[in-house]
């Protein structure tokens, strides 16, 4: 009995020492950034990186020829693996790139001696050819499609020859024929390459800052095969340490990373950008002039549920986050930081995302071919209610497909929006009557019009949006059936033109209005990316004229004209540009969040001591359950011992 009592006492002391707040990062040391991702990533393989989580886990590892400046707004490109921005010919068809000479791939077992070798021009061209190879099935092929001299012909010939080879009994692997030359990719020397375009492509340089065109060694693809998707090898400031595709990705600082320094505009005027003083005053330039990476590592944990992610951030276990919709009111009552977060030193950075939420109308549908019906539907939408209630006030009413901050945005283009964002039912009903459907009734059948709304999921947010659309159309006299799909199911319906209305959103791949206007260009209609199947000769002519122009007032004017056509013809009912608040703990430095790219990882730092002290203070152990459990037991044991003496 005495031994049992001693054991229980020891257990009580142990429980008190560890408390009731376990450390989610046991054994971790150094300056490690803690990140929570809301969706499981799919792949580290650059040609397959199309989703948000895959982009985020890949950005520490990979680099392309160009990257985004970490702080400059409007967004600005800067050299990354390239030594400088390219030399561009007068006709804008030839780009010459000079590469940096101190770049090496990460040490990895894919190399014969385990040591990463130097990156040279052949590696860039090989990665781009693999991106275009038909066996790769790249999700981003559209970025090169028809753009590079001879590349489409190279791809089509490979596809034909691979089929013939298979028919002849040859073994055809995923790199078959990749050694064949592409006329538009020219090797000059080990550190120089040239790209010949088939036509002017002003967005080409933005493409070279995307994950799709990252550079990696062919040794890694050959060594890992299909598992290259889980074993990234790049040139970036971080390298893979551990990866569990359903739990987390862990990175460590690359000890062989070339010398790259944090921008230092105060000391070096040549490094200044518009608004750099504001970034300095906001504390973003805390590490100006230092060599990157500043972190010892990054831990990205896959946390699919909103509430656990929010609790992790609230307790200091995540260093930053964009608060989930259901926690906006707690984090930001009345749109400003809560007093609890202010007291903890949390900072908030708000920005309007580069993207647009919209209702996509299939303009080939028998009913929705009628532009009067589309216009009436647009005026029946209560965008203000949606912003206030479904976005918690964290959105702008979208009167244009082009979001604020992008050339072509016009907040005064309001043919079928009201300035307040409220519905105009009287005008909407008149438009519907003029379109041949008074009170929403089809005179041929005497019955109310019916629409089917395709929802991309059954979650709370999707249900709210679908219910609201149904209610808004009911007020117009139109009945709506809601069909719940998985996202792949909905995409399949749109490719086959088997839908009427779908709730969609587009996030920009790069900060150019062409990126979203391409969805309404006639030749891109389904089964292409233009699900609205919109056909306008005027729009298409403007698009083609703008597509060969660089950034200029003339191109901006063309973008505005295209946006006005969309507002007038209503193939989309533009709904919202979401405002994204990013919350950061006080120990996080150099972090200027953007959804356009994930290269901000390179410049981030944390004060580990400050974080450790705060986390310990905020997560004091709760000891009363231990006493409630143990004290009665100890009392009974003590009583038993006395009785036995």
Summarize this structure briefly.
This protein is α+β, with helices and mostly antiparallel strands and 645 residues long. It contains 20 helices and 24 strands.
Terminal-residue CA separation: 11 Å
Number of strands: 24
- Give the CATH architecture of the domain at 355-580: Roll
Classify the fold: give the CATH topology of the domain at 355-580.
Dipeptide-binding Protein, domain 3
- Cα gyration radius (Å): 29 Å
**Overall mean pLDDT:** 91
Shape: globular
Question: Which structural category do the helix and sheet elements fall into?
Answer: alpha+beta
The CATH C-level class name of the domain at 355-580: Alpha Beta
Number of helices: 20
Structural summary, described in words:
The chain has about 650 residues and is an alpha+beta fold. Among the domains are: about 60-230, Dipeptide-binding Protein, domain 1, CATH 3.90.76.10; about 355-580, Dipeptide-binding Protein, Domain 3 (Dipeptide-binding Protein, domain 3, Roll), CATH 3.10.105. The longest helix is centred in the last third of the chain and has 21 residues, at about 625-645. It starts with a helix and ends with a helix.
């Amino acid at each position: 009995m005495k031994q049992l009592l001693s054991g229980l006492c020891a257990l009580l002391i142990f429980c008190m020492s560890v408390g009731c707040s376990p450390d989610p990062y046991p054994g971790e040391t150094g300056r490690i950034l803690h990140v929570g991702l809301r969706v499981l990533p799919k792949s580290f393989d650059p040609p397959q990186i199309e989703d948000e989580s895959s982009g985020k886990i890949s950005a520490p590892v990979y680099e392309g020829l160009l990257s985004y400046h970490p702080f400059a707004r409007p967004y600005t490109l800067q050299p990354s693996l390239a030594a400088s921005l390219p030399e561009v010919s007068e006709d804008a068809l030839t780009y010459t790139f000079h590469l940096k000479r101190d770049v090496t791939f990460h040490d990895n077992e894919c190399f014969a001696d385990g040591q990463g070798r130097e990156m040279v021009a052949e590696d860039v061209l090989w990665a781009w050819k693999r991106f275009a190879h038909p066996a790769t099935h790249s999700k981003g092929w559209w970025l090169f499609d028809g753009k590079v001299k001879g590349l489409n012909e190279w791809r089509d010939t490979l596809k034909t020859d691979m089929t013939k080879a298979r028919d002849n009994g040859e073994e055809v692997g995923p790199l078959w024929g990749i050694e064949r030359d592409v006329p538009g990719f020219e090797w000059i020397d080990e550190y120089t390459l040239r790209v010949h375009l088939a036509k002017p492509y002003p967005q080409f340089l933005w493409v070279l800052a995307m994950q799709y065109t990252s550079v990696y060694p062919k040794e890694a693809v050959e060594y890992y095969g299909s598992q290259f998707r889980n074993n990234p090898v790049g040139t970036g400031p971080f390298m893979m340490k551990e990866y569990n595709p359903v739990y987390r990705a862990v990175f460590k600082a690359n000890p062989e990373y070339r010398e790259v320094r944090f921008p230092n505009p105060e000391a070096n005027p040549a490094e200044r950008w518009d608004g750099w003083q504001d970034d300095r005053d906001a504390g973003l330039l805390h590490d100006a002039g230092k060599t990157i990476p500043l972190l010892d590592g990054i831990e990205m944990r896959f946390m699919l549920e909103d509430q656990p992610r929010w609790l992790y951030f609230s307790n200091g276990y995540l260093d930053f986050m964009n608060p989930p919709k259901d926690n906006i009111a707690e984090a930001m009552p009345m749109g400003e930081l809560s007093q609890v977060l202010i007291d903890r030193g949390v900072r908030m950075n708000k920005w309007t995302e580069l993207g647009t939420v919209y209702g996509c109308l299939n303009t080939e549908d028998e009913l929705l071919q009628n532009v009067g019906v589309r216009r009436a539907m647009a005026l029946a939408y209560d965008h203000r209610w949606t912003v206030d209630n479904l976005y918690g006030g964290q959105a702008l009413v979208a009167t244009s497909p082009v979001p604020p901050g992008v050339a072509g945005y016009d907040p005064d283009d309001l043919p079928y929006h009201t300035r307040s964002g409220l519905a105009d039912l009287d005008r909407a009903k008149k438009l519907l009557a003029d379109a041949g459907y008074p009170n929403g009734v089809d005179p041929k059948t005497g019955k109310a019009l019916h629409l089917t709304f395709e929802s991309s999921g059954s979650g709370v947010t999707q249900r709210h949006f679908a219910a609201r659309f149904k209610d808004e159309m009911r007020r117009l006299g139109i009945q709506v059936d809601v069909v719940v799909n998985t996202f792949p199911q909905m995409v399949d319906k749109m490719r086959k033109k088997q839908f009427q209305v779908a709730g969609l959103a587009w996030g920009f791949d790069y900060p150019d209005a062409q990126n979203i206007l391409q969805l309404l260009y006639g030749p891109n209609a389904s089964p292409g990316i233009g699900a609205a199947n919109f056909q306008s000769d005027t729009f298409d002519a403007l698009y083609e004229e703008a597509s060969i122009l660089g950034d200029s007032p003339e191109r901006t004017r063309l973008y505005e004209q295209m946006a006005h056509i969309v507002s007038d013809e209503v193939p989309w009912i533009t709904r919202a540009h979401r405002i994204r608040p990013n919350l950061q703990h006080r120990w996080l430095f150099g972090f200027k969040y953007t959804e356009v790219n994930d290269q901000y990882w390179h410049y981030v730092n944390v004060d580990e001591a400050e974080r450790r002290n705060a986390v310990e203070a905020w997560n004091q152990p709760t000891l009363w359950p231990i006493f409630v459990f143990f004290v009665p037991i100890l009392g009974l044991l003590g009583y038993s011992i006395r009785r036995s003496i």
